[in-house]
Write the structure tokens for this entry.
Amino acid sequence: MTCRYRGFIPLIAWALLSLSLRCGALAEGDIFGGIDPGDYVTGRFDPVKHRLFVSLADSGVPTDGRRQLLRREAAAALRRLYNDFRAAHPAVPFHVRSSTRTFVDQKSIWEAKWRRGASQAAGKGMKPRERALEILRYSSMPGTSRHHWGTDFDLQVLRNDYYETGAGRVLYRWLVENARRYGFCQPYTRGRSRGYSEEKWHWSYMPLAGPFRAGWNRLYRRDPSVFTREGLFSGSGAAGDLAPVYVNEINGECEKMLRE
């Protein structure tokens, strides 16, 4: 198959990176920065020590004050996006609330929600798979989050209704209309039949997220027990087989970007 870039995105750096990843010009070791691919796609590494990760604050992107890291390619694209948004809307709030998360980070989030569900009256009668499905509305199982890859970030408010009125709506509408030009898309939108619920705050840098998702799928096909074995996290034995659904069910526009 002939590999060619057919998109119209005007940023040359974005286009060349996307083309090189799809055509195989970058070896796996270059994509993963010397980390074992399986460890990388499941978040079993320290992004602080990874040579291809950078601080968003140091890159000129506002954060919530905590240390937020992304892959340097994603951070550079996000800086361009932010600068252009700020020029168009100087008074509208914009900052990153969450970015790269490790397996340990994601497990902490998952386990806290698992315990909270077990303590609530509605959750006490739930079987493990039912409890996992409830958490999976908005939170990933450890080892399956796009946030492991350094490609995804969450904006300041984790509620869809914030982005439906006022300043939040201005920000969201601008992103819907423009984020694609910088390589970003919203992976979890309304109208999908499976996977996570809509998240208007969550955006993904597709030139890298696409290859990393492919690497994740290769790992799962080779050894599903990486996600399904008992004791990996609460409910892993009962719900780990759902991992491919939640990793792969994303917005069709994001999928289209990967094919262009």
Summary: Residues 1-27 have pLDDT under 50 and may be disordered.
